[in-house]
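forwarding from the other thread:

> can someone predict this with manganese (II) ion?

sure thing
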Amino acid sequence: MAKHFNISVIPGDGTGPEVVAEGVKILKRTADKCGFKLDFTYHDIGGEYYKTTGEILPDRVLESLAESDAIYLGAIGHPDVKPGILEKGIILKLRFHFDQYINLRPVKLYEGVITPIKGKGPDDIDFVVVRENTEGLYAGAGGFLKQGTQDEVAIQESINTRKGVERCIRYAFEYCRKRNRARKLTLCGKTNVLTYAFDLWERTFHDVAKEYDDIETDYAHVDAICMWMVKNPEWFDVIVTDNMFGDIITDLGAMVQGGMGIAAGANINPGGISMFEPIGGSAPKYTGKQMINPIAAISAAQLMLETLGEYEAASMIEAGVVKVLRDDIKDVGAGKMGYTTSEVGDLIKAYIEEGHHV
Ligand code: IPM
Ligand code: MN
């Protein structure tokens, strides 16, 4: 019997629905081609829904998501909603609720894409950031004292548990082994200043490393990583880091690989329900204009199929992305592609049809 997956879709705000439509188009095509079945259940949560109903993430939506095999997310963020409400109430809530403790963000420069890093090409820029996704400064620990007075104190604590750090580091070692390229894992931290949190990270890193003789280990402070990502991106294979540093360096990574329009991420619970999303936000100024690049969302769909174990289908998507970037798209930026959002989706769909391989 054909395999069957239930996919929850949250198109969300701004350009989210436009890019998700292209991702779903591609997912359907690859499923037909590779002989598995996908069912899609849509949820209209996001900024608009919050504005009209006052609800952020209703329990019935959470319950429905919990019944699915994976979540496909477009974008969350609305210009009329105060920053933090939707981000915390939807994106972070889902990451925590489903214990998606890994945020996997590949940084790969494809042929035909321009990187702002002078003198570097696709051979130099191909690494993956494994970001811890449930702890650190994102855990929400802290509070105000004497709020609104001259004596106000605001505390935001970074929570790092041995269990949380260890499962993330172990995932990164496993991933590095499976990826089988330079077999080098770099811990990105700040051991010279964050002497509690990154002491735990460093000790755990060395402990776990004993189980992985075949992986070279390396350490760099986060500020130095920012420098090397620009100067010598070819030094990196897999980078593992905490939630906040991972957030920051992956926006830099997205630029290094050519832009937000092509950067995809996976929020993974290896034993549970994972969520896949383009890294770029809701891009309100491009909404509904068919100008936004759907490739980040399409690559997120590829990460979904990889995580679901549909490797052939995933590699067909990547082959389509490679070809469209190399042969068709002029510039990956919104409005500069030389094609509309859905034309890019159609091109990739046609390449999948023709059966291209990476
Ligand atoms: C990201 C985003 C989110 C984060 C925001 C929207 C909460 O920037 O996925 O990187 O900080 O993790
Ligand atoms: Mn971010």
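The first strand starts at residue 4 and ends at 12. thats all i got for now
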